[in-house]
Amino acid sequence: MRVLAASDTHGDQKRILKLAEKAQRENIDIVLLCGDLTFAENDLTGIIGPFKKIGKKVMIIPGNHETEATIDFLSKQYKPEVYNLHGRSVMFYNEIGIFGCGGSNIGLFEITDEETKETLEKAHKPIKDAHFKIMMVHTPPFKTELDALWSHVGSKEIRRQIEKIQPDVCVCGHIHETFGKMDKIGKTKVINVGPEGIILDIEKRS
Hints:
The protein is an alpha/beta fold.
């Protein structure tokens, strides 16, 4: 299974088209968009359409530039190909689980540590026995290469949940200065996927 994960496209239709072209060229099965799909919700044009046009399944969460209501609107407009993964999860091939939590501890639409905890626990529960898990968040976990600016500005609660759940991969965005950087928390590979996107190749057991 091939996954393309990206974030922070901020309404840039050229970036979205490039990602859609990449998804088609690389034979991607699932696209993960980790928030900040808009710039302060100014325009929703062309955010999802290019992926729908090529028949790709897309999982989306809000960033700090859009509300959950906006992400819900997009998922309903483009269903069944598009799914709002904020506080939810999906399972593929009965073994690959993807679960999500959007929002940020800093920005226009903030989410508290308690809300983050509750959202991730709720999302993870249905896929807790998955053989391979991907956590999809907007904000990087605290004290990693991904949240290092003048100080560490990531989410402490996301880090706590990674330490507790130990998903195989956590994909995020939010911090523009660290796009493309990777780190590890225990066995979990954490990646700031950025607007260029990264590809994950996941092997099924059977």
